[in-house]
Amino acid sequence: MSKILVLAEKPSVGREIARVLGCKRNAGGALSGEKYIVTWALGHLVELAEPEHYGDQYKTWSMETLPMMPHKMALKVIPETSKQYSVVKRLLRSPEVSSLVIATDAGREGELVARWIIEMAGFHKPIKRLWISSQTDKAIKEGFAHLRDGREYENLYMSAQSRAEADWLVGLNVTRALTCKYNAQLSAGRVQTPTLAILAQREEEIKKFVPKEFHTVRADLGSFFATYKDKNGQSMIFDKERADALGEKIKNKPFKVTEVQRSKKSTPPPMLYDLTELQRDANKMYGFSAKQTLQIMQRLYENHKALTYPRTDSRYLTSDIVPTLNERLRAVSIGEFSPIVKDIITYHKQIARACVNNAKVSDHHAIIPTEQRADTLHMTSEEKRIYLLVVKRFLTVFYPNYEYNKIKVELTCEGERFDASGREILHQGWKRVYDFRDEEEEEEQTLPSFHQGDVFTCKNIQVKAGRTSPPARYTEATLLSAMENPAKFIQDKRMKEFISGGLGTPATRADIIEKLFSSFYVEKRGNTLIPTSKGMQLISLVPPDLKEPLLTAKWECQLEEIRKGSVKKEAFISQIKGYTKDLVKTVAASELKFTHDNLTKEVCPECGKFLLRVQGKKGKMYVCQDRECGYRRNISMETNARCPNCHKKMELFGDGEKKCYVCRCGFRQKADKFHAERGGGASKGAVRDYLRNQNKNQPPQKSAFALLLEQSLKEDGKKK
Length: 720
Description:
By secondary structure, the protein is an alpha+beta fold. It has 22 helices and 26 strands. The protein has a 7-stranded mixed β-sheet with strand order 2-3-4-1-7-8-9, with helices on both faces. Strands 15-12-13-14-11-10-16 form a 7-stranded antiparallel β-sheet, with helices on one face. Helix 3 crosses helix 5 and helix 9 crosses helix 15. The radius of gyration is 30 Å and the shape is globular.
């Protein structure tokens, strides 16, 4: 009897699908049942071949071999996961298998994972596609009851393949060109570089900013405060003497109400979450990185089955989801949410109409809870935080608008104008669920009842000094916003209208930010992102076109058009090849220089060159300046241990008995003594991770080729 092969993206998902389908027999990298065999990838099992595959001339990095332009891009099996690939390939070619169900993640990258395996294995039997937005038993059963024809997703595959090949062509060619030209470990990419350029531009603005001192004048009128405003509505006074004189002029004088404005305002509930919006909120509220939030979301989706598919760019639901909402509401009726859910169901509250729009959902709808009740007791604190964020946002859209009266009062005193503003809440609406105060609301005060002509006496004067602030540095939250909407970074105003896509996709932006950290182009101070000297120099060295968000954003639009079938992959890749040639020429012709300004006197134990001191995401490191050497060693780890003198977080240096806590204020103490005296410091897990990284970052004493040769000789010896 023939069977249907099901290919999942990860073992955990594969086992869940196998359980639902009744596949219980272990088949070594697969689970078999009467009708189905379920196997899995380990993420990507197949990838694009390295340049060396196309000829020995590419084994050495040199400008003479650039640009690299393969006529047809080749695939290769990833060595580390080749064993699982062999299992999948054997099953794909098995005469027992009559057809395949692709059950990898329902998105562009998930399609690529499966299709490259299929292409590499030479599979030509019928293909169906499982396309689901949650991993609950119900969703899996319904998905298998309504499998789609695999041919519907050919264009999605073409889009994914185009993205991968474009990144290979641009990224590898420009990276080699920069590295060879400047003899430094430099890299560039079609999304990474314009993202770094956004940070570098802000850093330049901050450096050029000249602060100005200003003063504001506030009058204490007993039950409220009024602030001076000039004829342009500005409160800042840049002349201290004028500010002091104004304060003296109005002291103890009567203030007359000349105008009272009451305007009714209505704020609708915030839209449901897509991935980028969720990453932004998680960063603002909890300091989570974009990558961290995505990883948490994947666990909530795959392991807990509590939330729907995370890698979505939509904040809307399709109409077919609406009948399932009551079941989803009951699933989240726990703890603080129970009375809210009861209120929604009892009074038959409907989801906001604005949230349901079939036209604004392409692959996946917004992130919402599943119909399966979540077990929050078995969630980590981070998982619980993200889960509750999504649940709160989901519940708010069943409530009406938040309504209030905005009150603005204008007063005069001695011919000068003063303003006071506040609000009067009329209807709490969705804020019953989501106790959220915006910046404007935080600044407003409660005002008494006003009538035109009312008079108030000035009780006191506040003349406050301040300094104008430079633009704020980016956090991951604000950088995600900039990547999502890069139009304001386009210099040519006529071209802004062509921007409809962002830099990267919701699923890839977190990895791009992480790449900036791992390449030491950006470091983190608190919650802000600061480009390093290396990052700033790179932006001055790369070709101008590659820094510009316009082209990369247009590429994402073209990838979307390929998915829709309105643009051919060949036309897109031809354009990318031409662009790559121009980039390499620009780098080769440059007369600029690159300087290592973080060179130390520490010598690399592998190649003898001086090491660079860099700030990694979790601490300081030494890395070798030689790209081919690759040596790196941790110096210190940032901890949560607080200094007993200044109470700031300290760093942990050294290993073994030499581990020592060091603070910027000068405090220094051995870790063992610090823990013994205070019973605290960095957690055991944090220290264990630090030591593990220390070991992990020590490179092998012999090259990978030498180790492989040794192993081969040993095996030959055993055979003899």
